[in-house]
Write a structure and sequence with these properties.
- The complex is a heterodimer of chains A (345) and B (126).
- Chain A is α/β, with parallel strands linked by helices and 345 residues long.
- Chain A contains 14 helices and 9 strands.
- Chain A folds into 3 domains: 165 residues, P-loop containing nucleotide triphosphate hydrolases (Rossmann fold), CATH 3.40.50; 68 residues, Orthogonal Bundle (Helicase, Ruva Protein, domain 3), CATH 1.10.8; 78 residues, Orthogonal Bundle (Arc Repressor Mutant, subunit A).
- Helix content of chain A is 43%, strand content 9%.
- Chain B is of the alpha/beta class and 126 residues long.
- Classes of the chains: A alpha/beta (345), B alpha/beta (126).
């Protein structure tokens, strides 16, 4: 197993998190990682695992929000043959599979309260029973949980068990949102640019100008690092930062951010007008044909779409063909067929 | 005159830290303080043989008191630990499970705490 994704950043918060990881990775104590969606909670879990003596043993992930209650239970603890209708074969649960290693419970705040009781029992006793089993099995699993909920708040709402909370929260790792550590943005861009460049046929991401960086640090980043990754992928495809930056909603969740009015190139949206009225004239019923209208409309939409992408890519036809997902040859044919002209300047 | 004992106090309340620190310095202890578990652990790692006893709060940022107790009992088994809990039975029970030498509930009577510390250290050295 190769080493996990690195933790990128120079902000005091990230330096602190790294320091904390180095001090607790060998303890095997229960950990809760918290932070907004997209901040990289799984990256932290992977790093803990990589730096622990359990490295090389299983790292098993379960997303507690992704499965309905019954399935989550059998996923975690497994079942015996005949435990319920349809249980034709014995199935091993994640607790068993993670034995000796790490069980990463993502979205622990979404675990149904009945399953929380069962989890608490496992944590207290170190034993679990698969569904339909009379026997309890010992488990030696390092539990790392993650959540984007405020668990203390969930306790007040009686959605999370207080005793489980304290048992899990032996060590807390909180990752602040990206907007609170904007000094990390250039480092993240650097790291992911290199990563994506090698993934996307060595296409290079333009280094952002200081104006772009300024805009990036003013943005709210509701999706955090994951959103930044997506932005970088789009920059890679479009070859420019400007349109993406201009498309940011600066009003999002932030009271002091200035909502920016930006001039945007509107993406082509097929309009229903003008397909019937050629040159402002009502159609001649003699030559009226749905087939022709369809062809006309299609040509128009295609022309708009292709022109739009060509403009975006600075008439880089090879890149445009990839975005449009048509062959280079087809694109050249369409350009001449539809009479699309390169900019004269 | 007793030997000068060295203690580490870990609590995320600045006020409590200051109160404890003043009191124990007056009582002729050598005192170090940390406002969270990680900083406390770092102090221990730089001077592992220096401390006789740790007083730790339970509910704290990053490494909780329960975490501190577990780590210290494993890495520095010689050091005594008093856990102070104010949050009902769960954390207190966890502190005992982690084998704190003593678990006390808030509010704390400092004179009483001083007595318990000396009892603990002396019962260990005898």
């Amino acid at each position: 197993m190769q080493s996990g994704p690195p933790i990128i950043g120079v902000s005091p918060a990230i330096v602190r998190v790294t320091d904390l990881i180095n001090h607790v990775a060998d303890t095997g104590l229960n950990i809760v990682i918290s932070g907004e969606t997209g901040v990289g909670k799984e990256v932290i879990a992977q790093n803990l695992y990589q730096k622990s003596p359990r490295k090389g043993k299983p790292f098993v992930k379960v997303n507690c929000a992704a499965l309905p209650e019954g399935l989550l239970e059998s996923e975690l603890y497994g079942y015996e043959r005949g435990a319920f209708t349809g249980a034709e074969q014995k199935k091993r649960g994640k607790f068993e599979l993670a034995n000796g290693g790490v069980l990463f419970l993502d979205e622990i705040g979404d675990m149904p309260i009945l399953l929380q009781s069962k989890l608490l029992h496992v944590l207290q006793s170190g034993e679990f029973a698969p569904l339909g089993s009379e026997k309890e099995f010992k488990t030696d699993t390092w539990l790392i949980a993650a959540t984007n909920h405020d668990l203390e708040d969930e306790i007040k709402k009686h959605k999370f068990r207080e005793d489980l909370y304290y048992r899990l929260n032996i060590i807390k790792i909180y990752i602040p949102p990206l907007r609170e550590r904007t000094e990390d943005i250039p480092h993240l861009i650097n790291y992911y640019s290199q990563l994506y460049t090698s993934q996307f046929n060595n296409r290079n991401i333009l280094q952002p100008s200081s104006r772009v960086l300024q805009k990036l640090s003013e943005y709210y980043w509701p999706g955090n690092v994951r959103e930044l990754q997506n932005v970088l992928k789009r920059v890679l495809v479009l070859g420019s930062w400007d349109d993406i930056i201009d498309g940011f909603d600066y009003g999002y969740g932030s009271s002091n951010a200035v909502r920016q009015k930006t001039e945007q190139v509107q993406p082509p949206i097929p309009s229903s007008n003008n397909f019937l009225f050629q040159n402002g004239q009502a159609p001649d019923l003699e030559s009226f044909s749905l087939k022709d209208i369809k062809k006309n409309a299609l040509d128009k939409v295609e022309k708009e779409a292709i022109s739009y992408i060509l403009e975006k890519t600075g008439w880089n036809r090879s890149r445009a063909s990839k975005i449009l997902k048509i062959s280079y040859k087809t694109l050249l044919y369409k350009i001449s067929e539809l009479g699309i002209l390169p900019p004269t300047t | 005159m007793q030997k000068k004992y060295k203690i580490l106090i870990i609590d995320d309340s600045e006020e409590i830290l200051n109160t404890y620190k003043k009191f124990f310095i007056k009582k002729n202890y050598s005192v170090a303080t940390a406002s969270n578990g990680l900083d406390g652990l770092k102090i221990l790692q730089t001077e592992p043989n220096d401390f006789d006893l740790i007083i730790t709060d339970i509910v704290m940022p990053n490494i909780s008191g329960v975490g501190i107790i577990s780590i210290v009992k494993k890495k520095f088994p010689e050091i005594l630990i008093i856990a102070i809990t104010g949050w009902g039975e769960h954390p207190g029970m966890l502190a005992s499970e982690a084998e704190a030498d003593l678990v006390l509930e808030k509010p704390i009577d400092l004179m009483e705490l001083d007595k318990r510390i000396i009892d603990l250290i002396q019962s260990k050295t005898i």
